[in-house]
Amino acid sequence: MSGSERVEGLTESVIREMTRKAIKNDAINLSQGYPEYPTAEKVRKAAVEAINEDENQYSITWGKQELREKLSEKLKNFNNIEYDPEMEITITCGASESIMSTMLGLIDSGDEVIIFQPFYENYVPSVRMASGKPVFTTIQNDMSLDHEEIKNTVNENTKMILLNTPHNPTGKVFSKEELEFIRDLCVDNDILAVTDEMYEHIVFEGEHISLASIDDMWERTVTISGFSKAYSVTGWRVGYSAAPKDLMNPIRKVHDYTTVCSPTPFQKAAVQALSLPTDYYQDMVDYYRKARDFVYDKLSECDLEPSLPNGAYYMMASLDNIDMDDIEYTDYLVKEKGVAVVPGSSFFEHGGEDMVRFCFSQKMEDLSEAMDRILK
Ligand SMILES: Cc1ncc(COP(=O)(O)O)c(C=O)c1O
User: Fold this and answer.
1) Which domain covers residue 8, as residue numbers?
2) The CATH number of the domain where 291 resides is what?
3) Ligand 1 centre and the CA of 99: distance in Å?
4) Same domain, 59 and 26
5) Do residues 156 and 294 share a domain?
6) Pocket of ligand 1, candidates 96, 240, 262, 347: which has the most ligand atoms within 8 Å of its Cβ, to mutate?
7) Is the C or the N end of the chain the one with fewer CB within 10 Å?
8) Where is 152: in which H helix or E strand?
9) From the CA of 228, how far away is ligand 1's center (Å)?
10) Are the beta carbons of 198 and 95 closer than 8 angstroms?
11) Do residues 339 and 200 share a domain?
């Protein structure tokens, strides 16, 4: 497959395009996931200090040793998975780079990757740029998985399944039983798993379980997460992947020659982020829960039909009672009401025209103003 074929047909990110439209129309931006929960002072100060202390050059390409060690502890204590910080953890420029490096490192031309739709926008381009073939299975409206449909996606070309829990955009938190079903599928068919656990700290109902902590999954799983959402530092570009050495080696090669390293001062500050007390996480979840309930109640008052998410900070709303499709409605909302949201179809290979995604990670006064504008 040629380079141009790999990017042919890819469109620009719709979510990031909605941000540009929000700026152009002076609209409140409920499209891209900018977390407005305040960044902890200790963490901000650590970044400034790191710069002033001249931590301004490349770090070791796999990431600062102290950060990898601290992450290894966190993965053990919070995620219940053990990784060697020397060989099995790599700090990347955000989880986005981890996803891309994983695909470029592990996918061969024609390999199939099972993706749950609706999906986080970056997945499909990452698979396609690696010359792989995305194959889709749909999370049902009641958040259940269609086991038969998933089994039917598997064939001799299936290389990998890509999971995201808590899930963007539905807020689904995968249960232990569901993860065990995925385990059986992977083990029976010799499939690798990549799990994007970006929202692991934002869970309202249920509990976050890491796929790699399920029996027989550690050896076949790449675990991805990052600092953007949990510590409100999306601009810092610090994420990571963790995997057994044989899976990590090719990922590290891609990382080495693409980004060299994640920004050094922010890696230093990320060490401080991992030292925040447990109260920090509880307060953050309480804050987002309040925002979730507020937006849900307000959207329920108008003709939109929201679904209450169990995790992350997005809410899907149905347009069934509205005489517009997702593109028309998001266009109308940003231009006429001054509120930017994301068309549902951007999360699907096919479908999603009857829904839109609201992000509720913004400040309460912005959410309140946005809801007033919509309800008016
Ligand atoms: C599910 C998911 N994974 C990964 C990312 C990207 O995170 P990062 O900022 O670490 O690249 C996002 C960002 O919105 C996301 O929603």
Assistant:
1) 3-39+278-375
2) 3.90.1150.10
3) 9
4) no
5) no
6) 96
7) C
8) helix 147-153
9) 7
10) yes
11) no
| Final residue of a structural domain among 257, 273, 289 | 273
- Give pLDDT, residue 26: 87
Euclidean distance between the first and the last CA atom of the chain, given in angstroms as a whole number: 51
- Residue 199 CA: nearest ligand 1 atom is 1
Q: Which letter does DSSP use for residue 360 in this model? A: -
Tell me which of 244, 273, 302 is where a domain ends: 273
Query: For residue 194, how far is its CA from the centre of ligand 1 (angstroms)?
Result: 14
- How far is residue 274's CA from residue 233's CA, in Å, rounded to a whole number? 13
Ligand 1 atom nearest to CA at 168? 1
pLDDT in tens, 112-166: 999 999 999 899 999 999 999 999 999 999 999 999 999 999 999 999 999 999 9
236 plus 282 within the same structural domain: no
| Cα four-point dihedral sign 365, 371, 373, 376 | negative
pLDDT above 80 for 5 = no
- Percent pLDDT > 90 in the chain is 90
Q: Is 235 found in the same domain as 107? A: yes
> Which tens digits make up the pLDDT trace of 294-311?
999 999 998 889 999 999
Spatial strand order in the sheet of 89-92 = 89-92, 239-242, 221-226, 192-196, 158-164, 112-117, 133-138
Q: Can you tell me which atom of ligand 1 is nearest the CA of 93? A: 11
Atom of ligand 1 at shortest range from CA of 238: 10
CB 248 within 8 A of CB 223: no
Residues 237 and 313 occupy one common structural domain: no
For residue 206, the CA-to-ligand 1 centroid distance in Å is 21
Average the pLDDT over each of 23-27, 92-96, 147-151 and give the range with the smallest value.
Answer: 23-27
Phi-psi region of 220 (alpha: psi -120 to 50; beta: other; left: phi over 0): alpha
Report the predicted TM-score, pTM, of the whole model to 2 decimal places: 0.96
Task: CATH number of the domain at 220, please.
Answer: 3.40.640.10
> For all residues of the chain together, what is the average pLDDT?
95
Domain check: are 330 and 240 in the same one? no
180 and 148 in one domain?
Answer: yes
Kindly tell me if the per-residue pLDDT of 325 is higher than 90: yes
Residue 21: per-residue pLDDT: 85
- Dist. CA 114 → ligand 1 center (Å): 19
96 Cα: distance to centroid of ligand 1 (angstroms): 6
Work out how many domains the chain is built from and give that number: 2
